[in-house]
Amino acid sequence: MEPGRKLQWVQANRKRTDRLRTVATLAQDLAERIDDDEELVRIAGMIADVVDADFRAHCRVARVSRGMVLIHVDEASLVAAVQMRWSGPLIRALGRMSRGIAFAYGKAGVAIPLIDADAAGRT
Length: 123
Prior knowledge:
4 helices, about 15% strand, alpha+beta, GMP Synthetase, Chain A, domain 3, four-stranded mixed sheet, about 120 residues, elongated, single chain
């Protein structure tokens, strides 16, 4: 094989080290995901005090990014209605913990827990 072709072959078949990740990096990413999941569960618990059964049936806390809470709604036709009905109450419930609430179509995230009406002080 001539030297120029050999160099091309080596470059084309070389393992890309920029795609490799160390075990420490993988462990750190896993720890961050666990922390994110715990935050989503905490936010879902705070939201549970405010919302009704219809909200729980169709919505999930999907993500928190830069202080914005993303709520996934499982039916695209409900996104606007849920946003109009629940944005204000949820922003008030979360207070300083959130810069705002966004709603989008999706099915991922943490379910809103069911709160017992008697335990929450409602009848």
